[in-house]
Amino acid sequence: MGRVEGKVAFVTGAARGQGRSHAVRLAQEGADIIAVDICRDIDTIGYALSRQEDLDETARLVEKTGRRIVAEPADVREAGQLRAVLERGIAEFGRLDIVIAQAGIAGMKGTPQWQAWSDVIDTNLVGVINTIQVALPHLSAGGSIIATGSVAALMDVSKVDQPGKDPGGIAYVVAKRGLAQYVHALALHIAPQNIRANVIHPTNCNTPMLQSEPMYRSFRPDLEHPTRADAEPAFHVQQAMPTPYVEPEDISDAVLFLASDEARYITGTQLRVDAGGYLKWYDYHV
Question: How far does CA 126 lie from the centroid of its chain?
C-alpha cells in the first residue's frame, strides 16, 4: 500500500519541473492524477513555458508507475478551463482527495513591466485561488490542499540590491505572500469539514524557471548576458546551507507528506523547504 493509495490528486503546472515531480511522486505512492499545464508561452515572460509534449511526458511517467492520469492543457488564470478538466478527471476516477496548486511563473525582467506584473499576479495568486475554488466542491473529509509559495514571500525585498527588484519580480513576491495569507484563512474555514490546507515555501529549485536567462540576469545584474555558470555561484545567497538550490524531488517529499494521512492533523502550516534561507533573514520568534 502506498502512502496515498487509492486517492486522486489534481496537480496544476504538471508538465515539468516541480509539478511533474509532484505528480509522479504521488503516482508512485498510489494516487491517480488529474494534470493540467498551460502548454504555451505568455508574451511578457522571458523564458519558454511548457509545451504539449512536456505534459505528454508527465502522463507517460505517471502511467509507467501503473497509475492512471487525465492530462490536458489549461490556463490557471481561467477558472472555466480548470473546472472543465477537473470535472472530466473526476468523471474518470470518481473522486478528488488532493489539490496541488503548483502552477507559477517568474516575471523577472518581463516586458512590458506592468503587464508582466499583472500576468504574474493572475497566475501565481488568482490561479491558485481558481484552482482551489473549483476543487473545493469535490473535496470531502480527509482532503488535502497544498499550495506552492516561495521563501521569497518571507524575505525583506525592500532593499534595492535584491534579485528580481523589477515589477515582474516584485509581483512574484506579492503573489506568493498573498497566497500564503489566503491559504491561512482558508484552512481555518475548512477545518470543520476535516479538510486541510497548507503552503510549502521552496527556496531556489532546480527547474526551468530558475535555469532561465531572466533569472540569471536577476542574480547577475552586473553582466549583460550571464550564463548558468555565471549565475549559479550567486544562487547561494538565498540559502544558509551550502547549496545553490534544492531539487524538485525535495519539494515532492514534503508534498507527499502533507497529502498523506500521516499529516492528518497538520493544517494552516507554512512549511519551508529552503535550506535555511529563512534563517538568514529573521531572528527566532514564535
Answer: 13
Q: Which residues does residue 72 pair with via DSSP β-bridges, in sequence order? A: 36
Q: Catalytic residue, from 47, 172, 216, 245: name it.
A: 172
Question: What confidence tens digit (pLDDT) does each residue in 165-203 have?
Answer: 778 888 999 999 999 999 999 999 999 999 999 999 999
For the whole prediction, is pTM greater than 0.85? yes
Neighbours of 97 (CB within 10 A): 21
CATH of 8-207+247-275, one of 1.10.10.10, 3.10.580.10, 3.30.930.10, 3.40.50.720: 3.40.50.720
Number of CB atoms found within 10 A of residue 171's CB: 28
- Residue 282 appears among annotated catalytic residues: no
Cα–Cα distance between 283 and 285 in angstroms, integer?
A: 6
The predicted pLDDT at position 275 comes to 97
Cell numbers 492512471 correspond to what residue? 68
